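One-letter codes give the sequence; backbone shape is given numerically. An example follows:

. . .
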Amino acid sequence: MPHPPPPSSLFITAPPADWRISAGPVAYETALEEMDLRARAIAQGEAPELVWLLEHPPLLTAGTSARTQDLLTPDRVPVYEAGRGGQYTYHGPGQRVVYVMLDLNRRGKDVRALVSALESWLIYTLADLGVTAVRRESRIGVWVERPEKSAGAEDKIAAIGIRLRRWVSFHGISLNVSPDLEHYSAIVPCGISGHGVTSLKELGKCTDMGEVDARLRRNFVRLLGPVREE
């Protein structure tokens, strides 16, 4: 496992962010409404930051850069306009979605630093789970090298897509724990062709969501500051 990273430029010590885990699938419309309300409350100083861990029913989301030609099978599962950056991605059971509502007014108004911190968060979490993951300057998200497939092959294991309103972030990350990877054939994931998609399950690693959540929490605290159960 890598040495613990130094705190990012977004690290703060107080007050702690709320940490919420939803036990059952959360409808996408419900999540959008909750994120919108919470982000507004944070911006107005009426609520603490929130890190929300959940799963969705099978669905596709379209970011603000989504291209029609990248939606290959439009009728397989519902498709939602997400309002976040990025292109098409899949969400569904077995995938840990984490919505991060962070106040960049207090953490420094640096979007690049936020994306970098989210990538680092995923990379260190995956290292805890026995997976060596990397970032690529030309491709957002987190990747796993797959030399057993072919020379230079890389698969995406986690996606990142955020939006800011009044310098409060919402949307966030999705980490493939044990989803049905066949659903990704309905899209060109994040508009990137020539690369595959993988999961902890496909790599033969931990698929216990509770363990994944514990590692996510540990590394969030290292990189972005303290949390408390909501």
About this structure: The helical segments are 28-43, 104-107, 111-128, 209-224. The first helix runs from residue 28 to 43. The first strand starts at residue 17 and ends at 21. The mean pLDDT is 90.
